[in-house]
């Protein structure tokens, strides 16, 4: 029995991208079977040079983390020959992706208006910092700025501490995936109608959209959500961290049944009759008192001992450091860490794709070295 190929096989994607948002999104396209071709300037995507862990002259572990599975060609887009090479690729492509400043796609001629004469069905995805048609269209911008301006940093961290960003570039990742959802939707339509289009998103819009229910509360009720201790949920409790004998544990009693299970497991059934803690919302209002009641109990055992007692009864997790997270038995069991061959490293350990198709994760490969696919894609004399 022949197994089906990857779902995006046969789709060709050209991408003019650097650093996070665009590369993260197109990496998913590559790992799901699309032929993703990085169209790079002669000196390459700047993230190839980001240390501290370099992989030769024009490669790094930082770069590979965003670019697995892609091909690479080097094209001078500002030269006549480079433009000719690019347009030749467009004729055989299904979509063109970029994550440049909002004004750059039109200037470089990589928007739909500039390319539709070459292929009417081409879909052009733009992922910029602030959008293409507004007062900030020409502004540079990055993930951490968006976390700051959208209010996400002010919602994160301990109340008495400084505003705090998420430890990784989460807005880049979310923007990349948001853009790819739009791209695939428009590509599906183009295959039916023969008509391509521009589709766009931007880091600012995605960051604002992540405000979710606190945003709704402010827009409809004028409620400005505060920063709360212990990374707690704004309206349900206990949903927060607790100190254990050797570290921290995160407990999520999102429903009343989990509170009942927690009290039973902790040997604190006395709290079930406490008028301060009858339901999740009231417990949230009395979070400080509830925390004072539970902290001493959690400190009597290690995190592992509590997890052995709680797992399966209610949602709970260790607060891991990065090494513990990646070396965990569960990460091994689920295959979340994989490896790919690399010309310099030999074997490069990577994060596996989080999507499974018929129970299997898609295979992965390293990104090509800078310009390694020039001969096959641009011709021998490129």
Account of the 3D structure:
With 382 residues, the protein is of the alpha/beta class. The chain folds into two domains: 243 residues, 3-Layer(aba) Sandwich (Rossmann fold); 86 residues, 2-Layer Sandwich (formyl-coa transferase, domain 3), CATH 3.30.1540. Helices cover 37% and strands 15% of the residues. It has 16 helices and eleven strands. The strands form three sheets. Strands 3-2-1-4-5-6 form a six-stranded parallel sheet, sandwiched between helices. The protein has a three-stranded antiparallel sheet with strand order 7-8-9, with helices on one face. Strand 2, helix 2 and strand 3 form a beta-alpha-beta unit. Helix 1 crosses helix 7 and helix 6 packs across helix 8. The longest helix is centred in the middle third of the chain and has 24 residues. The protein is elongated, with a radius of gyration of 25 Å. The model has no long low-confidence stretch (mean pLDDT 96).
